[in-house]
Structures are given as C-alpha cells and as structure tokens.
Specification:
about 350 residues, alpha+beta, SH3 type barrels, Alpha-Beta Plaits, three-stranded antiparallel beta sheet, 11 helices, 10 strands, about 15% strand
Length: about 350
C-alpha cells in the first residue's frame, strides 16, 4: 500500500520524489540551523571575548549574508530534484538568480563598508574616514549597477545593445547636466585635495569670508561673520583664490603711525622704542621691527611689525587695541601729536 502511494504520480512527479525533496529541505535547514545556533554563536561569543573586531566582522558577515545564500542553495537543490515544467523552471531560475544577486550585492557592500571602517579606525585617520562615508553612497550605486548588469546579462538581455540605443539620449543628458557634473567633480576635488574642511574659516576672493558648515555634492554652505548663510557652487570654490586660516599658528601684523612735522628730533628717535615697549607689554606677541618709514605729504610715518602668537581674531584685536592705547598714552605724556591730512597755504602780498 505504502509503495503504491510513493509511486503515485502528481504533476509529473512521484510522491517519493516530493518526499525526497522535502527531506532535502528539512535536512539541509536542520544542518544550517545547528550550524547557526551552535557553531556560529560560539564563534561570535569568542570574537566578542577576544575583542578582535575583524573576527567579529567575519562572523557577522557569515550570519547576515552567507547563511541566507546557504538556505537558498538548499531550497534550490531540493526543488531541482523534481521534474518541473520548462516555464515553471524558467521562472524559478529567474527568481533564484534575482534573490542570489541581491544577497551577493548586500554581502559585497557590507564587506566594503566594514573593511574600510576597520582600516581607517586602525589608522586613526578621522578625515579619510569621513571622506569614505561621504563617498560610500556612490560606491553603493556602483556596486548595485554592476550587480544589475551582471544579472541582466545572465538572464539573456543584451546590455550592449541597450547602451547603444541610449547613447544619443545620454549625450543630450550629459550636455544638459554639464554644470551639475562640473560641481560634482569639484566636490570630489574638495574631498580628496582638502583645500578646506568643516569648521574651517576661509575667505573667498578677499571680500567673502566665513566658517564652512556643509560640503554637499553640488554646493558648499558657509556661515559669514554677520550671520547670513553664503551658498557657493563647488566649481566656483575650486576655481577661486581661497585663504584658509585653520593652520594659522601666529598672525603677522603690520601697521603705520604718522606724527606731525613739528615733532622734535629726540622724540622721533624715541618713537621706535615707544612702539616696541607697547608691543612687548601687550603679551602673547613677538616684536619684529619698528622704523622711521617715510616722509609723507602731511606726516612723518613710522612702520611697525609684530606677531600675535594665536590664530584667534578676537585676541588679535584685543592686543592691537591695547597697543594703540599704550602708544597714545605715551605720546600724550611727551606731547607728540598724531598727524592728519593738512595743507598749509602761503599767500604772497603784492608790493605797491
């Protein structure tokens, strides 16, 4: 009786064939379940205990990517043991190929992400890690595109013919998006060449300045000193003259002081020492020089140069203010007058 039932055919297959297929599924799934919950869990616990991050990533990759592929393989082997119609088998193969491709793409993306993250973490280079995180969406798109092309090729589609048919349209789109593509390429230039980074204070073309708040694929946003947000196309920034004050360790200052022509020679000789004492007394400064610079139309001009040992602009202004007060106080004690634009006109009286 049992033998007759096993020999009974249903949809072109004997019952024994279905039983064997079911046995393959149950046996395969059971082996994989044991592997996952016994062997793999022990490996995971060992990797956590050993604090070996690369080992933990390998175990996680096996659990999230390899195991689903293994389950799919067991199911595929069990089903292909049966005698199936060509249409059903074609559809099943397509579905299996699509699912396998999706799992493989996810696996490769996970491997790239975790491997790069582990590498930059080991190198302790946060800047390059941030660059990779910004580039990762582009890498994902590239992996997905390659995976889809591979899938279509295996399903019998002629990708070269499709690309050739889209060639003219692609040229038109590229011409229309030329400006956008220019900004995108400039974005990669900013990421790799790093003329500036987030929170850097920069000036653009000497009249626009601010702190970098965001670097996007097309635009960069800068917060100006007066509070408004400046938005620049990336291509404008890469083609402009930039000044980046992040690496500024000290600030070199040059300023001029003019006194009147009626200032005595002794006071003129003392002025460089007065300026030097004012600069050194301000603190956090390095005096470079102070000289009687020139005889101008309405003043005797002295030029001084010093360094502020800080990149903080507010601190520089505080020091310069203190120097100015000190010089004015000393000039007032000596009766030295600051010059301002003046003209003296002499009128000659005609003799009768």
């Amino acid at each position: 009786m049992a033998e007759n039932i096993l020999k009974y055919k249903l949809a072109g297959n004997a019952v024994s064939g279905y039983v064997a297929s079911l046995a393959v599924i149950i046996g395969g799934f059971l082996i994989l379940w044991i592997f996952r919950h016994v062997f793999l869990n022990r490996l995971k616990a060992w990797a956590k205990k050993a604090k070996a991050e690369i080992d933990y990533l390998v175990v996680a990759g096996i659990e999230k990517a390899v195991m689903p592929i293994a389950y799919l393989g067991v199911f595929y082997v069990s089903v292909t043991r049966l005698s199936l119609s060509r249409r059903f088998l074609r559809g099943f193969n397509i579905a299996a190929a699509v699912l396998l491709t999706l799992l493989a793409i996810r696996f490769f993306i996970a491997v790239i992400r975790h491997s790069a993250g582990f590498y930059w973490k080991k190198k302790e280079d946060e800047t390059k890690q941030k660059i990779f995180e910004k580039l990762f969406p582009v890498i994902q798109v590239a992996v997905w595109a390659l995976g889809v092309i591979f899938l279509l090729e295996n399903l019998g589609f002629h990708i070269s013919t499709l690309v050739a048919s889209l060639g003219l349209g692609g040229v038109a789109i590229a011409l229309a998006a030329q400006g956008v593509l220019k900004d995108v390429f400039s974005y990669f230039v900013i990421l790799f060449d790093r003329p500036f980074e987030l929170n850097d204070f920069i000036t653009i073309s000497s009249d626009l300045m601010g702190t970098v708040e965001h670097v996007g694929i097309k635009t960069t946003r800068i917060r100006s000193l007066s509070g408004e947000l400046l938005v620049f196309a990336n291509s404008d920034l890469t083609s402009s003259r930039l000044r980046n004050y992040k690496s500024l360790r000290d600030r070199r200052i040059q300023f001029n002081i003019g006194v009147t022509y009626d200032t005595g020679l002794k006071d003129l000789k003392d002025i460089p020492q007065i300026i030097e004492a004012a600069i050194k007394g301000a603190g956090d400064t390095v005096f470079e020089r102070a000289h009687f610079f020139s005889l101008d139309a309405s003043s005797l001009t002295f030029q001084a140069v010093y360094h502020v040992m800080s990149s903080d602009y507010n601190k520089y202004m505080d020091i310069q203010q203190e120097i100015n007060f000190s010089i004015m106080e000393e000039f007032a004690k000596r009766g030295i007058a600051f010059a301002f634009p003046t003209q003296t006109i002499y009128l000659a009286k005609d003799k009768e």
